[in-house]
Amino acid sequence: MSKAPIAIIGTGIAGLSAAQALHTAGQAVQLFDKSRRCGGRTASKQIESGSFDLGAQYFTARDRRFREALQHWQEEGWAAPWSPNLYLSRAGQLEPSTDEQARWVGTPQMASIARALLGDLPVTFSCRITEAFRGEELWTLVDADGASHGPFSHVIVATPAPQASALLAAAPKLAAVAASVAMEPTWAVALGFATPLPTQVEGCFVQDDALDWLARERSKPGRNGHLDTWVLHATNSWSRQHLDLSKEAVSEQLLGAFAELIDCVVPAPEFTLAHRWLYARPAQPHEWGALADAGLGLYACGDWCLSGRVEGAWLSGQEAARRLLEHL
Ligand SMILES: Cc1cc2nc3c(=O)[nH]c(=O)nc-3n(C[C@H](O)[C@H](O)[C@H](O)COP(=O)(O)OP(=O)(O)OC[C@H]3O[C@@H](n4cnc5c(N)ncnc54)[C@H](O)[C@@H]3O)c2cc1C
Ligand SMILES: NC(=O)C1=CC=CN([C@@H]2O[C@H](COP(=O)(O)OP(=O)(O)OC[C@H]3O[C@@H](n4cnc5c(N)ncnc54)[C@H](O)[C@@H]3O)[C@@H](O)[C@H]2O)C1
């Protein structure tokens, strides 16, 4: 009988990073995600007039191993540098914000990286895993419809921490660590304008009550939508305070804040979309790398194990795979 595959719950950057490392090492993997597509918080939304990045806006690469992976992504055309006309808005004043930081984006959209990393690996979408339990030797997963999946030799949980703790119940110490991680929400609003706004701004860090960040989609490489689409992110604190506000009210308030901030007249948008990220980022960075109960064969990874960024998620996935492989 062939060896049971390794189950990976979550197809964000962390889960995909672990999957790739294990696949490269000759291990069979089976991925699961509750969503209809991969990428998690590196999501891009496809609409008739183009696409835009709704979660992660760009990423930086500080770790040598991640820089090497990024070089490969660039060579393959999955990622490219993004050097926007960057501004800072403080106390209502908009000023250019030049820095030396290199930033990258997925091409032609942020979600392209996850799609490329997934490649042909076996995956089950629209499948929310609710339980992972171990028999004498092997693991079984149960989904929200009560269906069982398995058997698996090991399980890697690659979801945000609040969703990971229940899936780690077989290892109470790991479950407790995951349960101790607070994650902050972010409201995101996309606005599409029929006529390009007459401004030089392409990205802006905002120090404000409501807004935290705004980006102009068409300034990113490979984007060719016909609307001038902007993505606005609210601060974590504003998002927390307005967690249950309707999407319409959130769009209206953030559009108002944007119109006050930007140095031009803002017409009514052709298109508006609001999305609430309940678990956008860990409240604090950690240095766990990944969590492991090697005896049980249960592992956890995700941005919350490191820095709350794309780079942290990728490194955490690598670490989970490394720890699993060293115990085979
Ligand atoms: C609004 C916003 C802006 C951001 N901006 C940036 C930025 O500019 N730069 C940067 O570096 N980072 C940014 N980030 C953070 C970055 O997106 C994350 O750090 C990274 O994508 C996390 O990857 P992950 O794989 O750890 O988790 P996720 O991407 O959250 O992936 C987890 C996956 O698990 C799935 N899942 C969850 N529970 C279950 C379950 N029970 N069963 C099956 N599947 C499940 C989810 O559907 C998801 O696909 C931003 C995040 C947000 C939300
Ligand atoms: N909104 C959310 O939920 C987010 C979740 C997770 C990350 N988010 C943002 O992602 C970037 C990623 O950080 P980074 O990779 O360290 O990038 P950085 O560009 O170096 O930013 C770090 C930090 O510094 C501030 N900053 C950077 N450059 C400037 C500048 N030229 N002018 C003013 N301020 C600058 C910025 O506020 C960053 O927090 C990061 O933006 C997260 O906020 C969002």
UniProtKB/TrEMBL annotation:
Its EC number is 1.6.3.5. It catalyses: 1,2-dihydro-beta-NAD + O2 + H(+) = H2O2 + NAD(+); 1,2-dihydro-beta-NADP + O2 + H(+) = H2O2 + NADP(+); 1,6-dihydro-beta-NADP + O2 + H(+) = H2O2 + NADP(+); 1,6-dihydro-beta-NAD + O2 + H(+) = H2O2 + NAD(+). Keywords: FAD, Flavoprotein, NAD, NADP, Nucleotide-binding, Oxidoreductase. It is an enzyme of class 1 (oxidoreductase). Residues 115-325 form the Amine oxidase domain. Its cofactor is FAD. Catalyzes the oxidation of the 1,2-dihydro- and 1,6-dihydro- isomeric forms of beta-NAD(P) back to beta-NAD(P)+. May serve to protect primary metabolism dehydrogenases from inhibition by the 1,2-dihydro- and 1,6-dihydro-beta-NAD(P) isomers. HAMAP family: Bact_renalase (MF_02074). This is Renalase.
